[in-house]
Amino acid sequence: MQAILTNSIICGDCKDRMKQYVLNESVDLIYLDPPFFSGRNYEIIWKDGYEVRSFQDTKWYKKICGNTECGRDMPTGYLFCPYCGTSVEDAKEVRMSDIEAYVEWLRSRLEECYRVLKQTGSIYVHLDWHAVHYVKVMMDDIFGYKNFQNEIAWCYTGLSQAKRRWVRKHDTILFYTKSKEWTFNYDDIRVPVSEARLKRIQYGDKQFKSGKAVSNEKGKVQEDWWIIPIIGSTAKERLGYPTQKPEALLERIIKASSNPGDLILDPFCGCGTAIAVAQKLGRRWIGIDISPTSCRLITDRLRGIGYSTGIEDIINMPHTNDELRDMPHFEFQNLVIQHLGGRQTIKKSGDRGIDGYTFDKTPIQVKQSDKVGSPVIRLFVQDIRDIGKERGIVVAFSYSKGAYSEVKHIKSKYGIDIELKTVEGLFE
User: Most buried among 40, 116, 235, 327, using CB within 10 Å?
Assistant: First the structure.
């Protein structure tokens, strides 16, 4: 394991990156907002483009007892079924249901969270109705039933078209600790008591019939349901990230369950809300996200609050040809266009072969392939002509001889300059 300095952004799968970089029992507080098992692909529209980021169900398999009268799941490490004694050699392999696969996918990451969390540490897992009850049972297994502290309901409002059920307008945050000792700064998270309540206390309750003044200076400790508005469309902190959480939500968690100088970990840090709030509150932090685009966004966000960082500081940012080839297409496309200082086109339908534009509005087309040929160039040029441009950029891993010949022909015939850039040349 290569332990890293704190205040680091790490690109990659958090399961692997925690194993690689985060020491045993080194973290004071973990907040994670994993994919919600909602079945949606989030197209993320930002000021500088968009990406597609989603949890893709994997074909997870399990073994079940080969005895048809039993048929129960076979625990790992057993030679015989603990329920009926049938040999593991007779077990059958079956595909898990999607929810089982999701829980197992998340389990391996929460097990790493347990390893890196201090004995006095706390963890908050942010979910919604899709899988929270399954994850609660799994967390009881990992962290211990007695270490469950709260099921927090984050309540918010918004328009809904629901006609056959109550409108779903809350998320659930599971709060666990690792032991019987943990940080909880209740005086830092008190909220005001309503004036009506103060009057009832002052004049109505028996112990206050003397009319003694009641102070609202400290307020009360917050209940396990929180009314915090979602980020409005015109809010200053809004980044256009569809799963972005309000800073007020993370501020409450971080103030309650950590102290200045403590280490905060967010293994699914997305657009970096937990990281930004931790920085503002004087905590150390580690942020991990599988999306290179998200990692870049976090560096921009941190610079916006005065913390000096850049893409060169991101650990494990993809840069070799093999790493770039393995990236999801839209992640690759966004990374290339950002590297050119450009912006992706927002509407993907109807934009034809133009994937983005440079700062001076030069069209860009990105191909995550080799030996891009003349047909691609011709179609791109037609798109450029249709919007009245005289220049364009194509980025790919390599080009055929025909592509270079086509560029010369187009310059001669139409006066349009096409620049063919290679991925290797762009990222070297």
Answer: 116
Closest residue by Cα to residue 175 from 230, 142, 136, 137: 136
Element (H, E) at 287: strand 284-289
H helix intervals, 242-391: 247-257, 273-280, 292-304, 321-325, 329-339, 374-386
Structure tokens at 280: 């503002």
SS3 of residue 219 by DSSP:
coil
Structural domains present in the chain: 8-55+102-183+229-313 (3.40.50.150), 61-95 (no CATH), 185-222 (no CATH), 321-427 (3.40.1340)
Distance, first Cα to last Cα, the chain:
28
> What's the rounded Cα separation, in Å, for the pair 90 and 67?
8
pLDDT confidence bin for 51, thresholds 50/70/90: very low
pLDDT tens digits, residue range 115-129?
999 999 999 999 988
Are the beta carbons of 134 and 103 closer than 8 angstroms? yes
Residues near 32 by beta carbon (within 8 Å), at least 6 away in sequence:
109, 113, 123, 124, 125, 126, 266, 267, 268
Q: Where are the beta strands (DSSP E) in 18-147?
A: 27-32, 42-46, 49-53, 61-64, 92-95, 117-127
